[in-house]
Amino acid sequence: MMKTLVTFLWAVAFVSYSSSQNTAGTEEPLPGPDATGATVVEEEDPFFKVPVNKLAAAVSNFGYDLYRQKSSESPTTNVLLSPLSVATALSALSLGAGQRTESTIHRALYYDLITNPDIHGTYKELLASVTASQKNLKSASRIVLEKKLRIKSGFVPPLEKSYGIRPRILTGNPRIDLQEMNNWLQAQTKGKISRSSRELPKDISVLLFSAAHFKGQWVTKFDSRKTSLQDFHLDEDRTIRVPMMSDPKAILRYGLDSDLNCKIAQLPLTGSMSMIFFLPVKVTQNLTLIEESLTSEFIHDIDRELKTIQAVLTVPKIKLTYDGEVTETVKQLKLQSLFDSPDLSKITGKAIKLTQVEHRAAFEWNEDGAGEAPRPSAQPGRLAFSLDYHLDKPFIFVLRDTDTGALLFLGKVLDPRGP
Ligand SMILES: *[C@@H]1O[C@H](CO)[C@@H](O)[C@H](O)[C@H]1NC(C)=O
């Protein structure tokens, strides 16, 4: 099991006031420089003993693997993924797999580390939790099969029961099939993901399709009057102007990770979710060091260790989309055999194999949020501690469900203008 050693160095210290006036009632005291130390993650964390959280950690670790692979394939462009929707399609496919292929998929999804015998039942619970209406997350996955395929009757009921998925059999007419896919996607995401014009390849045997949309609602909304064009440093030499939201007195959770040389901040979203930002101290498009440390356990630790502070915050407005395939990416995650000669004998008697993994994602945040911040009352003449947190250079963001710990979306923002 991945063991993570986290060292947080608190480079900030609050100026303590002798005044008894409560200016920041929600803030926990930060440990001073002397309190710096290493925390070894306990594998027996009670959080991971809850079956749905344990499963969420497993599929999220697959998600970080998928992201790392995708990011290494795209060193100079943004990356946007909803790994959970990809994991869902794979997990669903494993219901149609014989033992050899089932093990292959289960290893990729880290199910081999789970003792829970009812993975698929727990997955249903996870899906119900993360797609609850207050989460604003639309996520859909699907198994698409070659035309005229005869499906074994035993395959469909468990698929529908745990994943709400009905396998789709292609007609073989590219125009009709594309239209049907677009219609399905529109229905599943309530029209939030635009229609694709990318035709499906002709030689499909098994295609996995996954899509997700998310529009963030901050717990504390940004004041749109404070949004303005500001610098974003693409790299050491190039700077662009982009719309940046700002909050001069944001309350956020923060930590400086000296090993990763990055500033981590967490902002809460409505629906028990949060956005975690990883911002390198120096401008760079090489985020490898941070990426390599991303695991469910590490993120869980961060969630516990960050300290509440007040900061001058600037965040670029973001609207990112992805419409493409992650076939080659998935292959690299020890899943090549699914594309060669897998055992999918619980789906059909015919020899079929995975040919394509499609992914669509749309992700957005702007000023929108639930309410105004409860402001600490500023007293004139008092020294106000303030830290700057400006997302004005390439960064990574992680959208996490606080209830289960599930990774819902993940992105590398090298250029906030998109795509
Ligand atoms: C990116 O950073 C990593 C770790 O710091 C380093 O090993 C790697 O060589 C860098 N890659 C590039 C392309 O500079």
TrEMBL record:
Residues 64-416 form the Serpin domain. Transmembrane segments: none annotated. Its main location: secreted. The keyword Secreted applies. It comes from the Eukaryota. Pfam families: Serpin. GO terms for cellular component: extracellular space. Keywords: Glycoprotein, Secreted, Signal. Coiled coil: none annotated. GO terms for molecular function: serine-type endopeptidase inhibitor activity. GO terms for biological process: negative regulation of angiogenesis; positive regulation of neurogenesis. Residues 1-20 form the signal peptide. It is found in: Secreted. Belongs to the serpin family. This is Serpin family F member 1. It comes from Sarcophilus harrisii (Tasmanian devil). The lineage of its organism: Eukaryota, Metazoa, Chordata, Craniata, Vertebrata.
